## 1
Amino acid sequence: MFVSLRASCRTLTTRSFFLHAMSDTPQAKKQKLDQIKIIGTHNGTFHCDEALAVFLLRQTATYREDPAVLETCDIVVDVGAVYDESKQLFDHHQRGFTEVFGHGFETKLSSAGLVYKHFGKEVIANKTQLPADDPKVMTLWLKMYKQFIEAIDGIDNGISQYPSDIKPKYKSSTDLSSRVASLNPAWNQPSSPEIYDAQFAKASQLTGEEFLGKLIYYANAWLPARELLNAAIASSKNIDSTGKILVFEQFLPWKEHLFDYEAESETPESEKAIYVVYPDDGGSWRVQAVPVSSESFDSRKALPEAWRGLRDDTLSTAAGIEGCVFVHASGFIGGNKTKEGALRLAKAALEM
């Protein structure tokens, strides 16, 4: 339940706490009430950043919510014209505010980014059940900012993804910030403080569910793929003396991880991977050329021109390797019936 006590403040109540407290003794109730922390944000029209900021705070061990006015709040987000972490004040609207996330990110923070910067690691550790000092927490913290939080910061601060002189080819209104905005009452609908607060609760829940969904994916699917990529790189010279062929025993999303690894380790151009070998769903094996970037269709070294567009026995004859299945007309990918055959294709292509 959300209760607004004055026009400048929205404060929040955790219903589950009060339902639980009803069964306690008066002394136990008083002790719990004394431990409650108050989160304050502005009233009226809401945006994605404060909705998410409030959700994130509710995932920490410190902050719970209770009806209160702004000046009595333990933490204030998206209102107050002050950013002071020591006083738990997290606004970004004031003149002269230039705070960014750091770590190479340059987008000015919204209240979501501010709260995430200071509390995100705790939230991630809590939700993944990892120790707070586990390196994986840091990896996920940076990844979640890049893939989820930064866009909210940019949109709330009016920062375009691209130069303003480029005309968009279509309108996008299904991003998270747009969907949160649509939860505000329309101009011709009732808009009492109680209605705004009820809708804000929905918005905070929406942002939180999407945040947690992304976090679960990155923790349970993305991060394990990163670890397998690192293992493949570590053993690459056991596959080929050049170290330019990576082998995976199962398919995994490797491109982004490979480029991240090369950037973080400052891999010299002469030592970067050229081909990746992995099994496909049909039991055959693929040889894929590494692209020049994660978004590019151009390869660092496409499979040889003489093989492109050929299939089956014709390709096997041209390559001098049994079991060939195909090579794409652009040379970015090919296949062989066996792992050994796919490795032979990759090694032969390196030498051509």
## 2
Amino acid sequence: MTDGERNQVKVLYSERQWVPWYWWLFAAAFVALIATQAGINRSGIWFYGTAVLLAAISTWVLLSWSGTKITVEEDSEGTRWLVVGEANLPSTVVSRSLAVPSSAKRNAMGRQFDPAAFMVSHGWVPEMVMLVLDDEDDPTPYWLISSKNPEQLLQSFVPHQTVNT
């Protein structure tokens, strides 16, 4: 997609994969514990300096882990695009699609996983979407992507393949 086309897109689905809220509590407890340890029997600069440094590092880590954004866009020609970070996939090359439930996530990423596949997975997102590609110009056999709502993602991206159950 060119920059001019990107200005004329309609967003059909959007999801940001934030880390769970309780990870922020664990990070705060870690910062408090280590800062307290560093400040014992020392001047206050040790406590405050350590707290500020570790708070900045843990905030950066948690925000960078939460940076995955998944969107489904429709361009002016009617083609739907799945955008995961910097990667783009048109719906025209998807031959089959399925939602991978949390009970099958481990198997999907197990021994039969193809190393040439495109994968975006986070441990805190329990379900996934598998998109099998039919594109002779691309060696990638399929995309495997974590999603908080895989059925809605599939309905937005490949509605002609979605089966209502």
## 3
Amino acid sequence: MKKSRIRGFTLIELVVVIVILGVLAVTAAPRFLNYQRDAHIARADAAFGAFANSVQLYQAKWLTQGEPETPVSYGSGTIYPSTPGYPMSVGSAPVDPTVGPIRGSDCVAMWNALMQVDLTIRPLTSTVLPSDTDIVSWYTSSNQCTYYYTTGYSDGEEMPLLLYSPLTGIIEKTTGRNNA
């Protein structure tokens, strides 16, 4: 009768395997941690792209309705156009659709009226970060709305930004720090 011999791992083999797994963990961990930042960037890109598409669709609808000075039926809320037909204010007519200015509440109201996403937004009060919302909105004296994507970012880090000018329809996706 043959005797079967069952062998296990030697201590040296076990140590070698643990060392190899440790090296793999050290080299792979930063790559996996970076996926979270990539996911936030992708979410910001998707939201900002949806906003840009909504602005373009609003302007297209404005053109097909004969360039009215009254609100165009698009999105939710009463969205008034600027002179070239881009969304400029919500709820009340713009101060002057030719030159502005944008009122402080207009940027947040436009985001909410044009977008149907699960991102939360608030106006800038004193600082962008820390923020308990996904988007922080700010308007500038140059008649431009700035939307900061804040989720997953700390103070001092570059974060995704969307710049929107209702007087020209120019939308720019970029990155930056809290400039307000």
## 4
Amino acid sequence: MDTMLATKQGMQQTFVNNARVGASVLMAGPCVVTQVKSEKKDGYWGVQLGLGTRKIKNTTKPLQGHLKGVTDKTGTPRFLREVRLKEEPTQKIGEVIKVTDVFAEGDTVDVTGVSKGKGFAGGMKRWGFKGGPKTHGQSDRSRAPGSIGQGTSPGRVWKGKKMAGRMGNSQVTVKHLRVISVDADKNTLSLSGPVPGIPGGLLVVKRVNERKEEPSE
């Protein structure tokens, strides 16, 4: 298992090699296994992980039936995400996965989440356009996008043209962040650099470095 679910807590400053760096603090787990996928039945190997708690009265009846094996008096898992595996999983339904079972200090991880929504944004904010000239009689072109294409040929705007539109609120993956520290008591994970989303938002953290096996004596 190389993936866990986490929620963003915020950012802080820490020192790494006598240099001050910004660190993101995540509440990673504990995650509970809610479903196990098999290659024979489903066509691939994988596990479904649950994180957090939701009141039973706020959970739909079909989902209550799906989570029957991991539901207790406190409620059902709030977040559910599936993780594909390259080999047959050893985890069982109801098994709890802690942060120290997956990550260690010095690991490299990729973090996926939904970025903050910015609403309808112009070309300068959304794509970093320079804008028009501030002189030569220009009065209302300072933040305009400028030309959006050619003339009679092709006579249309090319698909994918960078223009004003909705910004943010999309899935973003930040790659190759380093694990600065792991706190087993608080279930927290400290990563170098920022991660997408709002505080309390769901994140999928995947370890991408290969662990070196200890030489046998």
